[in-house]
């Protein structure tokens, strides 16, 4: 993957710095630029810690001026998330309350639209946007493992082992999506569609990296995981039915069918054994778990509303 | 915080209002007598009877009224 195309003065200055390593070009005031520019810049900085860029020196991952910029962008983003997704007071029993919080969130659904109404072109657009996360599925949560005590650590690995195909690369969830993309005629290289995605997708991905990369945010990372898994089985069934309706390839349908069954397990593990064990060991994390869950649901709702508005304008 | 030396790690877990979790490699016979081997470290067996993916859970219990949930 190469550095994404700039979408404003900040991402343009960042691209220049990443190319030649001279940090003097970075603007001092990031608030002067718009959200898309800030989210793309933050996404680019995070990628230095995942797979990097073919045209960027690996040394720059830990370059102090770039870390300063990342921290500035992160502080602002986290403050926005906390303002938008303030959790309710933690209730008992914890697992039931977390399931109720997730089930009670009435968000917009792109899967329901794909199931019944979407055109093939709209569905392919959605799949291109989903590549940004699905091609590194489960990776942001992997950062959390060493920050946990024994109970939640073992519980998280029980789930992650399945995400990573139980050691079989053919069954790795992100690889199942590669197979689906190839069969569908879409590009399967990591980050291939980053220049096309709307800001809502960048924000979703940045929230996962923010939560995953900060030990302080481990509760939010696991709450995000729980909400993601608990809103996956039924929508994945709808996606599979929509793809079948449109005659899309079996490999892509198989990706979603795998998630119907896997995530019916994962939601129980994530809510009961992972978040449950975390909160049992660290009761002060209960509110952070709920914050992470609401951030997951709220950012997906924002993405879905954006897509449904774009698509209804087309008809 | 002091961590315990022994942790509970049951082979079978009944989830309130949801599936039965089964840890490890097993063969589950469905209501029609067809055997299904588990394929993942933990499997969720349907308890509400409404899953379209028998004998496995597909999350359908969540859209049932409370009195129909296991």
Automatic annotation (TrEMBL), chain A:
Pfam families: Haem_oxygenas_2. InterPro entries: Haem_Oase-like_multi-hlx (IPR016084). It comes from Jiangella anatolica. It comes from the Bacteria. This is Iron-containing redox enzyme family protein.
Automatic annotation (TrEMBL), chain B:
One of its GO terms (cellular component) is cytoplasm. Keywords: 2Fe-2S, Iron, Iron-sulfur, Metal-binding. InterPro entries: FeS-contain_CDGSH-typ, MitoNEET_CISD. GO terms for molecular function: 2 iron, 2 sulfur cluster binding; metal ion binding. Residues 33-67 form the Iron-binding zinc finger CDGSH type domain. This is CDGSH iron-sulfur domain-containing protein. It comes from Jiangella anatolica. Gene3D superfamilies: CDGSH iron-sulfur domain, mitoNEET-type.
């Amino acid at each position: 993957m190469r550095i994404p195309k700039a979408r404003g003065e900040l991402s343009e200055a960042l691209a220049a710095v990443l190319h030649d390593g001279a940090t003097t070009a970075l603007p001092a005031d990031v608030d002067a630029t718009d959200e898309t520019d800030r989210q793309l810049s933050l996404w680019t900085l995070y990628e230095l810690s995942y797979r990097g860029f073919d045209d960027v020196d690996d040394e720059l991952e830990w370059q102090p001026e770039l870390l300063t910029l990342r921290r500035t962008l992160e502080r602002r983003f986290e403050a926005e998330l906390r303002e938008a997704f303030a959790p309710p007071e933690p209730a008992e029993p914890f697992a039931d309350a977390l399931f109720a919080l997730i089930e009670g969130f009435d968000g917009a659904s792109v899967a329901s639209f794909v199931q019944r109404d979407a055109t093939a072109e709209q569905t392919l657009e959605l799949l291109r946007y989903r590549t940004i996360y699905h091609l590194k599925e489960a990776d942001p949560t992997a950062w959390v493992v060493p920050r946990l005590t024994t109970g939640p650590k073992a519980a998280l690995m029980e789930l992650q082992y399945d995400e990573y195909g139980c050691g079989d690369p053919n069954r790795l969830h992100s690889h199942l999506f590669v197979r689906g993309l190839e069969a569908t005629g879409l590009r399967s290289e990591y980050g291939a569609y980053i220049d096309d995605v709307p800001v809502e997708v960048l924000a979703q991905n940045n929230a996962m990296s923010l939560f995953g990369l900060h030990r302080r945010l481990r509760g939010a990372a696991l709450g995000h995981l729980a909400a993601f898994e608990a809103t996956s089985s039924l929508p994945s069934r709808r996606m599979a039915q929509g793809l079948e309706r449109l005659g899309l390839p079996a490999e892509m349908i198989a990706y979603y069918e795998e998630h119907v069954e896997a995530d019916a397990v994962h939601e129980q593990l994530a809510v009961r054994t992972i978040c449950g064990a975390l909160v049992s060991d660290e009761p002060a994390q209960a509110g952070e778990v709920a914050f992470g869950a609401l951030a997951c649901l709220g950012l997906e709702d924002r993405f879905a509303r954006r897509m449904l508005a774009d698509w209804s304008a087309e008809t | 915080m002091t961590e315990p030396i022994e942790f509970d790690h049951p082979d079978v877990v009944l989830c309130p209002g949801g599936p039965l979790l089964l840890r490890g490699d097993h063969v589950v016979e469905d209501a029609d007598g067809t055997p299904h081997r588990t394929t993942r470290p933990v499997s969720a067996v349907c308890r509400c009877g409404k899953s379209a993916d028998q004998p496995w859970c597909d999350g359908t219990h969540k859209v049932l009224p409370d009195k129909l949930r296991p």
